[in-house]
Amino acid sequence: MATLRIGRSLQRLPRLSCQHRPTLAVRSCIPAATYLHHRPRHITTTRPNGLVQTIDAFPSQLENAPPDLLNRPAPAPTTPQTLTEKIVQRYSQGLAEGKFVKAGDYVTLSPQHCMTHDNSWPVATKFMAIGASKIHDRKQIVMTLDHDVQNKSGKNLKKYSQIENFAKTQGVDFYPAGRGIGHQIMVEEGYAWPGTMAVASDSHSNMYGGVGCLGTPVVRTDAASIWATGRTWWQIPPIAKVTFTGALPEGVTGKDVIVALCGLFNNDEVLNHAIEFTGTSETMRSLPVDDRLAIANMTTEWGALSGLFPIDDMLKGWLRYKATEASMYKQPSPTASLTSDRFNHRRLDDLFASPLTADKGAAYAKELYLDLSTLTPHVSGPNSVKVATPLFDLEEQNIPINKAYLVSCTNSRRSDIAAAAKVFKDAANGGNVPKIADGVNFFIAAASLPEQQAAEEQGDWQTLLDAGAQPLPSGCGPCIGLGTGLLEPGEVGISASNRNFKGRMGSTEAKAYLSSPEVVAASALHGKIAGPGWYKKPEGWEGVVKGEGGYASFSIEDVLDKLVNDAEAAVKEAEQRLENSSGMKPTAEKMAGEDAAQESSTSGSLTEILPGFPEKVTGEIVWCNADNVNTDAIYPGKYTYDDAFSSDPAKMATVTMENYDKQFSSIAKEGDILVSGFNFGCGSSREQAATAILAKGIPLVVSGSFGNIFSRNSINNALMGVEVPKLISRLREAFPAEGAAAIGQAGKETITEPDQNAQSLDSPPPAPESKPDPAEKALTLRTGWTFTWDVRRSQVVIKEGESGDTWTQKVGELPPNVQDIIARGGLEKWVQKEISSG
């Protein structure tokens, strides 16, 4: 096995001569035939001269997930679908005949796999509390222990034992503490499979997108629902397309790509979006699977809900290697099934026979592009992923460091360890491995035990130990602020992990930077932020080429498709504006006639409404003009852990939105529609933020966008929500907030919530709340506008006051299966009913 691993890891790319194009500077040359696993990050100091060419009662539900989802022929879509939509189509249940899912739709989801980690026992407790006793599909569930593996206290060991015994009793695959980080296990063991959908009760499940698997996070209630029924719900997010051009230069890595993306596009461009990465075959060939995993992993920090790469030749080669390795070296586990049950060539043959791809002409909510050939090594921070600086700028500042970290599921695979070791081997110049700088602590932990073993066999692990690195067990550790080596007050640390929010890796008075493994290693060696010198800035380099929208990154065929789509969208927008500006107010008779005509002409696309569920939800708009209204503003932390208070709806109603506006409870009335700005409900994961709004008698919240966890907690607790960005713009035009200069702009300082909030470490701290100055404007306004959500037609109707305009907008479908969850009073009650009726 050592021979196979070493040969694969050290295999070099053959150099091909490529013709120059009279565009940007020098780019790496990518061969037509590639290696299986990863591209060596550095081969020589001489760079090749070639250029690459470039979104209650009660429908029947399917009792079980289809046994052969991957082999089920998918009907041809009548409209183009993105890769994300195609995968969701496969894993959605109870769809109407001929229904093709699209962004904004709510679906009943039965994912291929669901992973839980140290939170498995809290999920199990919730699972048992709702009356479940047996996991619906044991092959669907994976349990790992990875977060607090260094904690040997009796309390933690008891929890770990409870999880292991529960997994054994239920017969699910289980990976004990020290075996690896859950996300790495999902990938290397083949649970995250290309063209499938896998979820986890952890925010970094986005990482599965690196191998073409749609990975996205779920909350604990969702996980318990999947355990009990095999299903939960999901609203397909808006989908963003990120096109890569060019090819990565030597000395630049996938970590540099995502660090740069987070810093260069740092105005929430992809917040709560699903991302699809794309590019020409030549460009994508410069991104090995390990680099893709790092990029997909940190799309979480970028604000996205998934980060999906295509199923291409690079991935296929890696998959073939994994299948060969699994067949040659079968290592039975007493607690999990064989790797070869998932990684095998027969399964790959089926996958490659008809791999999923996005349809030409598929609609994306946003399009960005990045020219990889212009990218340089970047460093994130301090204490924010929204700040990314070219390495050479930081090197000039001579920033001393105290701690360096090669840890986490982002960048601690064998290729990352090899890259770090090479820094020290190069510095040895044939002699003894040099030691890390005095006063620096360098901590290393592999992403999984197999990755560590491979690094040991290659000699790279020992090289780092010889240099003075301190090994830690495979697990999350310092990345989430647990265990040995945390940052102390006043210290500076640089890490190859994924998150550097203030206090994440230790003291809030420390500074944390993020970079690639080789920059971490070089910084440890030199005692300051430094690189290994492998990247040479091209002559005439003028910065990173990137942008939003436009045609710069498209092929001729893509340009033609986009021109047609843009023209159609422009025509529709012009027609809508003409209709709204005509000043003609439709009579009730005319509106009724139009409704009848629309129902007749679009009956096939109308949403079924369950008996007892309202076809329309309507009310007066109560306007809270603010962005980033966090969960503490909605339901203050001082009440969250007062069980007597929080179990009394009448009391909760008196403090709803108290930290935003103490006058809210006296202004808002039962039946109103609460409308607020963008990123509503960000921050901690408290469910009371949703239940308090319901306690106030408000059935529906409308925003420009929702925080993901709040969005999930809303449906799980039977609060309806819908995103209508256009409404936010119109309200801001009609009711300007003179004291809100920062409206719509993310600030730089983080909000400090009360200590008892227990803000999840898996949730980025919210941006500062931007709202009007109370001295200038009332914070809560009764607008006199009426908002109606027509559930049957999947559209909203806004009447702007008695004499104002009336306009409509399409929104995502709320299908019967999600209506059922809301009608039953939330997901837990829905699960209880499913169990009792099953």
Automatic annotation (TrEMBL):
Per the UniProt record, which EC number(s) apply here? Answer: 4.2.1.36
Q: Which domain of life is it from?
A: Eukaryota
Key words, A-Z? Lyase
The kind of enzyme this is, by top-level EC class, is lyase
Lyase: present as a keyword of the record?
Answer: yes
- Record's protein name: Mitochondrial Homoaconitase
Q: Which organism is it from?
A: Vermiconidia calcicola
Q: Which gene encodes it?
A: LYS4_2
